[in-house]
Amino acid sequence: MMASSYNAKEEDGHHSGSASHGGAAVVKSKKPDNTAFKQQRLPAWQPILTAGTVLPAFFVIGLIFIPIGIGLYVTSNNIKEFEIDYTGVDMNSACYSCAKNFSWNSTTSCLCTVDFTLEQPFESNVFMYYGLSNFYQNHRRYVKSRDDSQLNGDMSALTNPSKECEPYRMSEGLPIAPCGAIANSLFNDTLKLYYLEANGTRNEIPLVKKGIAWWTDKHVKFRNPGGNANLTAVFQATSKPVNWRNPVYELDQDPENNGFINEDFIVWMRTAALPTFRKLYRIIQKKSSTMPTLPSGKYVLDITYNYPVLSFDGRKRMILSTISWMGGKNPFLGIAYITVGSICFFLGVVLLIIHHKYDTRSTGADIPN
Amino acid sequence: VSQSFKNFFSLGGDERRVDSRTIYIGHRSCPASEAFIPPPKFCDNRIVSSKYTIWNFLPKNLFEQFRRIANFYFLIIFLVQVIVDTPTSPVTSGLPLFFVIIVTAIKQGYEDWLRHKADNEVNKYPVKVLEDGKPVDKDSEKIKVGDVVEVKENETFPCDLILLQSSRDDNTCFVTTASLDGESNHKTHYTVPDTEKDLDSLSATIECEQPQPDLYKFVGRMHIYKSNQEPAVRSLGPENLLLKGATLKNTQKILGVAVYTGMETKMALNYQGKSQKRSVVEKSINAFLLVYLCILLSKALVCTTLKYVFQNKPGQDEPWYNEKTQREKDTNLYLKMFTDFLSFMVLFNFIIPVSMYVTVEMQKFLGSFFIGWDKDFYDPEIKEGALVNTSDLNEELGQVEYVFTDKTGTLTQNNMEFIECCIDGFQYKYHDSSSELDGFGVTYGPMSKLQQKAGWEREELFLRALCLCHTVPSAPQEEKGFIASSPDEIALVKGAMRYGFTFMGLESKTMKILNKNDVEMYELLHVLNFDPVRRRMSVIVRTRSGDTLLFCKGADSSIFPRVKLEEVERIRMHVERSATEGYRTLCVAYKCLSAEEYEHADKGLKEARLALQDREEKLTAVYNQVETGMSLIGATAVEDRLQEEAAETMEALQGAGIKVWVLTGDKMETAKSTCYACRLFQRNTELLELTVRTLEERGRRREDRLHELLLEYHKKTVQDSPLAKTRYSSWSVGNQDYGFIVDGASLTMVLNSSSDSNTSHYKNLFLQICQNCTAVLCCRMAPLQKAQIVKLVKNSKGSPITLSIGDGANDVSMILEAHVGIGIKGKEGRQAVRNSDYAIPKLKHLKKLLLAHGHLYYVRIAHLVQYFFYKNLCFILPQFLYQFFCGYSQQPLYDAAYLTMYNICFTSMPILAYSLLEQHIGMEVLLCNATLYSDIAKNAMLRWPPFIYWTLLGVYHGLLFFFGVRLLFGNLALPDNGQVFGNWSYGTIVFTVLVFTVTLKLALDTRHWTWINHFVIWGSLAFYVLFSLFWGGIIWPFLSQQRLYFVFANMLSSVSTWLVMILLVLLSLLPEILLPVLRKPRGPHARQVQLKQTRTQTLYF
């Protein structure tokens, strides 16, 4: 890539005249040391970028990037992704009434059902996401409104949450557990997926709720105070977040997925980078090698509509997606790689022409002088 | 007495305290003074050079530090962070600021501690003070004005003393003033004449001027009261004053009375920090800083405005999931806006990094070591290398446009050798073979009087004059030869010695001369000292036979008007010829004084010496009066050899596009010949003269002639010359070169013309002529005029960078005046070195200092500054862009640890290493190709175009980082297990790309990869990765939020993230790779350099 030559300047290559005369020993300390460092003569590699040296690099980059880009593009294209908006903004949409009649005080939950059709079968494991739009999980006031030591099972933080949790710190004189705006606004819609068989029967598709959170979060960062047993007792002196229907120890029946280590809760607690985001909700595992995980056909999505978004003009979506080695569907990477690869290749060609032309010119008329 | 007192004080009754001080020797009141004036309180003899005490260190030091605008700015940011609820914790900016302040405070504290120690050493130094006739031991700080102090041999004087008694018979003592002005020769000082031997009974007062810093000036007088007698008055001059800091030599002990103590001593008054010189780079930094401050303010303003626009939309200010606290709700809207603005400022404040100041300071401090370390600057003769007195100006060495050089001692060696002389018009040249007067052969006679000689009487008179007319204090010592302050005089005395007249020394006013085994004795009556205005010196001696003779030697211009015309005619030709050969010429004249004449002169001299007011003027008047009607004996020619490689150095400097001006006090012919010898003037150089000689041509008024000449030269050099159009390539072959010669008198006329309008007009013309000449020679310059010239050029259009180089005390003013002052560790003492910014042993070292060191320092620091602004722009730009995606909520993109460490740890070391080690062009190549120096002239790398380039690069990178990752985050499921990344992952990816890009960008710029560069560049990247893994690998108990827990490790588990990071780094560096490649072939110059570079490389391969 670079024209280079090793410039090993020998240390005693340049003698400054008669420096070693007799008598110099008396004030020897004043004489500068003849070391490569002090004389700025450290051996050095001196690369120079020239058209000739950069040229092959461009070709190589082009040749590597274009195949990678094509690979990425194909992979991304092969990823199946289905997305449906169930916010209920439109009069005709199924969840319109649920969305319109939402009230924090209602004790019964509103149910709605959305039908959709998958044109193509989803072969491998399918990941079910919920997506929110115009929801500023990255707002500063929001991001900092949590107490990580409380979530890590710290007893003192449980009863005395951090000031950062304000105004979701205390409720009716009791400390809130888990405190803060993030926990308080936990996404609490329940989604259920049914396969509608040709005869009209609904086949519930099993949704796995384990493995949706980062392993380290689940096992280290989030811990229940005093272990996973007896959560009810531990959270006795605390209050549930104001917007929650159930206290934190009733998030799930499974003690390994209850309290602070509930995976839905952990996923939510990882604040999104952008106001439009998706979060992993459930995993649909591939059963057999012959059957696709989700065959093409009609599906029904049952929604327990608890989460209001219309007040801030937000949207809610349900996304089904397969995943490849590069993650979810994202054509950007493939396109970018192909573009950059092509640019490099093109530049290589341009440079080749310049290099060639310049070389012939310079032999004819060299430097005037 | 009262009469004289009154005379003295009559100038202004109340001003007497200002004018003079009265000292009672031994604190004895004087019987005769009718009104005893209680001695005013003088300051004690304590020297305080320290700045702080233990009590005031903290507040005073902090105050001093926060007076720096940068520190103050960071303090404000820190305070805002503490007071206002800001996105980043105060630690992020507090920690670096705290670090900087602490380090600076420790450094300054340590320096002050050293000063305290030094002060104590001086103040507690034991001295002997005479009390009631007995010496009593005291601390030096206890000495009061009026105390009589005893000093022994090799001790330093504890305060400024008037010498009262010396153990030597001849009432003299010898001192060296090495620590004051660096002159290591012995100087003779005299006791006050005719004082009582018994100091106990001495009752006297001293009137002297108030303390003033000039080491060589002192005016005072002593009144000695004797019982029942008229008080005697003695004049006191610098020869009676022993300065604090000087050392007593060759004298067993002396007694002196303290006249100035403590901070009022001349040494303390001279101890003043030099005024701070600021480099152009610093000015550029400040300009850039202003731009970035504007960027910062506008960013904060934009964000604040948009925030309130955004919040006005329904549901966005306070959605149900993100309610405000009660306090926030209660806050006044405008106050909130203001705090929001401050918060944004704090969020973006990293765009102006504290660390840049630290790095720049470190670079300068560490970088300056390389000058001292350079063994090429080591001179085996004086056994010393270069000296760096200030590290602030390293880069200025690469920007020099004008070099002002002294001639004697700088261009020439100041190693005088007697070459020839001329007696009565006959020329004598010394031949080694003979030492007799007979071997004093005539080689060249005027008017075809070949092989003729002047009468031997004249010859002997001439040689006696050489032997007597000087101030060499002692006979030749073994090995060392003569010791004297003037090398010319030594050369002359040595010259006379060769011809059989040996000066045997001066003992109690008697000069002995050994003349062919005969010892002649002369009584030295008066020495009429040399001064640069008179340009001559004389002695008055009395021979054994009782004749009184005056011998005078001096410059031809000052002697010729004082001797008979016909004598002048015989000698002038020789003098002029010698001068054109580059010799220093002196004319020697003598005069027999009749008894009356001598009486008159003696009286006049004594009177003038006693004068308290205008003593100098009065003396000069008497001198002029005495030195008239002399007869010219002959002239001498002394050669001053050129310094080693003086010509090569000058040629290289001119090749580098630097204009060289020679400023000398010497006469025009000598200076001109030196200029030719140095190749400043070439054969084909057309000389333009603006001297008294050309001005007096054609018998016209000088003013008219000046006007005419200026216009003529201006037309020649500026208007007609193609040089004017192509200024930068001015030093090319084919054009007519001009050399300009101006002398002091003409310069005065130019600068102080009769009318004001003319002055500025002449000044302009003069400057324009000078700027278009390849070399300018200013001769017959007074020291102050040298500084005037420098100032004139310094303040001219375009404010060029000036450099003054000199070796003597007379160069100090121009060394201080110029942007960069260089002292040569020459023979004329150390004053120039002490006042310089850099000191080098020889002139030839200037070439490497400028062409190699200066060039590299400039490139290094320019790159450092640009890089710092660039890297912080692309650091903060993504954070700014992120505000558009987080509801303008001041959410930081990066974690606090990254914000703090970015400039301190991750990206600081590679640029520091670069700025210390980079050699984009090898030193040898720089030295061989002087033209390379002009490539960076006029602050080329820190002008607006490169700054804009770097800024655009920073913007490009910032945009690329942010939006590249934004597109990647179009789908948040990045790992292959379907899990999603959050905002901290986003920031970490951007940050990782940023750190890698910024470091690799520097790697691309590095042209000189030593192992240190490799270590630091790859090391800091590795450190970043390891730190990130470590920082995210542990739940830190002291952190309230574990934001980065396993974020970095998880990021690395995603293939897409890897791919996007590689892509972004490559894409950002693409223009960096492409641009130099495309740029290269354009200029033939670059190609040339490259060729040479490869050539040297192969040489070293």
TrEMBL record, chain A:
Q: Name one Pfam family in it.
A: CDC50
- Listed GO biological process terms: phospholipid translocation
Q: Where is this region: Disordered?
A: 1-26
Q: Name one GO cellular component term.
A: transport vesicle membrane
The answer, when asked if Disulfide bond is one of the entry's keywords, is yes
Q: Does the keyword field hold Secreted? A: no
Tell me the organism: Gouania willdenowi (Blunt-snouted clingfish)
| Name this protein carries in UniProt | Cell cycle control protein
What is the membrane topology listed in the Swiss-Prot or TrEMBL record? Answer: Multi-pass membrane protein
Membrane-crossing residue ranges in chain numbering: 48-74, 332-354
Keyword list, A-Z: Cell membrane, Cytoplasmic vesicle, Disulfide bond, Glycoprotein, Golgi apparatus, Lipid transport, Membrane, Transmembrane, Transmembrane helix, Transport
Per the similarity annotation, which family is this?
Belongs to the CDC50/LEM3 family.
Composition skew (Low complexity), residue ranges: 16-25
- What is the superkingdom listed in this entry's lineage? Eukaryota
Q: Where in the cell is it found?
A: Apical cell membrane; Cytoplasmic vesicle, Secretory vesicle membrane; Golgi apparatus; Membrane
UniProtKB/TrEMBL annotation, chain B:
**Is Ligase among this UniProt entry's keywords?**
no
Alphabetized UniProt keyword annotations: ATP-binding, Cell membrane, Endoplasmic reticulum, Endosome, Lipid transport, Magnesium, Membrane, Metal-binding, Nucleotide-binding, Phosphoprotein, Translocase, Transmembrane, Transmembrane helix, Transport
Question: Where's it found, cell-wise?
Answer: Cell membrane; Early endosome; Endoplasmic reticulum membrane; Membrane
* Keyword presence, Signal: no
Entry cofactors: Mg(2+)
Q: Catalysed reaction(s)?
A: ATP + H2O + phospholipidSide 1 = ADP + phosphate + phospholipidSide 2; a 1,2-diacyl-sn-glycero-3-phospho-L-serine(out) + ATP + H2O = a 1,2-diacyl-sn-glycero-3-phospho-L-serine(in) + ADP + phosphate + H(+); a 1,2-diacyl-sn-glycero-3-phosphoethanolamine(out) + ATP + H2O = a 1,2-diacyl-sn-glycero-3-phosphoethanolamine(in) + ADP + phosphate + H(+)
Q: What is this protein called?
A: Phospholipid-transporting ATPase
* Species this chain originates from: Gouania willdenowi
